[in-house]
Amino acid sequence: MKVSYYPGCTLKTKAKHLEDSALASLAALGVEIRELPRWNCCGAVHSLADDDLIHHVAPVRDLIRAKDEGSERLVTLCSMCYNTLARANLLMRNDEVKRKTINDFMTEESDYQGEVEVEHLIPFLRDVIGWDNLRAKIKVPLTGMKIASYYGCTLVRPQNVAIEPVAGKIMNEFVEALGAEPIDFSANTLCCGSYQVLAHPDSVADVVGRIIESASRAGADALILSCPLCEYNLLKKQEELLEKQKIGRRMPVFYFSQLLAMALGLGPESYRPDMSDAASVEFLKSKNFSVESAAVQA
Amino acid sequence: MSAPKQVATGDRAILPEGAKTIPIYVMGKRYEVPETLTIMKAMEFAGFKFLRGAGCRGGICGACPTVYRKEGDYKLYFGLACQTVVEPNMYLAQIPFYPANRAVYDIEQIEPLADAVHALYPEIFRCVACNNCSKACPMKVEVLDYISAIKQGDLARAAKLSFDCIQCGMCASRCMGELPQYHIAQLVRRLYGKYIQPGAEHLQKRVAQIESGKYDGMLAELQKMSHAELEKIYKEREREPDMVPLGTWMPKDVSHL
Known about the structure:
- The structure holds 2 protein chains of 2 kinds.
- Chain A is an alpha/beta fold.
- Chain A is built from 13 helices and 8 strands.
- A 5-stranded mixed sheet of chain B has the order 2-1-5-3-4, with helices on one face.
- Chain B has 10 helices and 5 strands; from the N terminus they run ββαβββααααααααα.
- In chain B, a hairpin with a 6-residue loop joins β3 (65-70) and β4.
- Among the domains of chain B are: 21-94, Roll (Ubiquitin-like (UB roll)), CATH 3.10.20.30; 114-196, Fumarate Reductase Iron-sulfur Protein, Chain B, domain 2 (Orthogonal Bundle).
- Chain B has helices at residues 39-45, 114-120, 132-136, 143-151, 155-161, 170-173, 181-196, 201-211, 216-224, 227-235, and strands at residues 21-26, 29-34, 65-70, 77-80, 90-94.
- At the A-B interface, α2 of A face α4 of B.
């Protein structure tokens, strides 16, 4: 079975630590996924307007690239890319009229009917490697780490592309497989505010405060996620909240794949502490993980 | 189909008897022009005079983009007027210039990073991947791919993908996100050339030698020589033989190296 990998623009720039840690981990696990040789922006958000088809062209073009590569599956790491690609895929699979319009518009590409499966890396890990297998390959169990898994919106909404029916199970299983202690918290799917950070920065600070407080009260040491926009909001707004004394301490924030790379015994060139914020780096130091970034290329 | 034997040209081309002509429509008006001519020559045959929108006439300067349709075909076609041969019932217009936003920057002051490009051209994120840009390129540049590479921060790839760009602006003319693709690509190639592409070591060495004054004396000597003396040393100069394998020949006098 051929699996293609769709990185997304942000994973090549601001979220390089999400990509580097995930790809190094997959290599260590012996799983090969190949980056699409040609790809464009996924579109970032799924357009909800019924007659707005042009904004589905970007994700569909990427799906066509995967199909043309002969791939049955397209794996993504970024929650937003996952959501946009998966929803465009369902549209092409289920809506005959829109499918025809979009295919007719893209005369220079092969026709597409939703042949490729879009999958996020977390369910991919469970289904292709399996939690028991993963557990067996852990070299540095994250014993004693209390990890809250923050899903945000795009991994679980809407229902037809959710990585699981009710958020809370799969990421906890992942955390457990790494040897850490999963922490449930009520705000695990509360929206981080997303792009509202531009128009309504204060409202975003409010929701970030609620997310961090919820995870803190539940006893989490750190929080993991898979969305670069959630990461940005959670880190940026924590700075402000701490200044205004609206939160007691800064919660370390990691991509799920950074913890995976650490637990697999990979070096800092894989889990990239050089791209994490100061509070997260301090947390790594306190857990005896190297934060040496001399060997790391920016 | 036989080409006209000879077309005499002067103020106006004179067709030989029996030369075959075809109808083309320039900005909506019908002209009978000899087949086998390029669009540019056909328009000149028809009486147009290019004050702008013609440059090298060799398919590289990008001054003469043409947009055209064919009878009964909904598709838009793009080509360079100096390279594209006329077809019967072609409907065409020249687009010598297309307005497009061009950012002002000091290349010394910006870093070769995606962020710098994104800051100068934030409209790059209005791209919806419709691919009209690539379809409009008369040089067959994959414009969408280089725009994608820039968004992905891969300036080297974008510089290479856009290498054949001739700055004609047809990509921008068709862009629904109103991007000035060709100006963005030019910025990226400048950043690539200045900061990313490895410099040629031998060239840097030679520039340093020149700046150190190594050749000043030799030049002054040459300038003092008479015409006859110059001619003599030119004729007697050592010359690398043709077809000599690379790196095997050295002149006897190495004082200039």
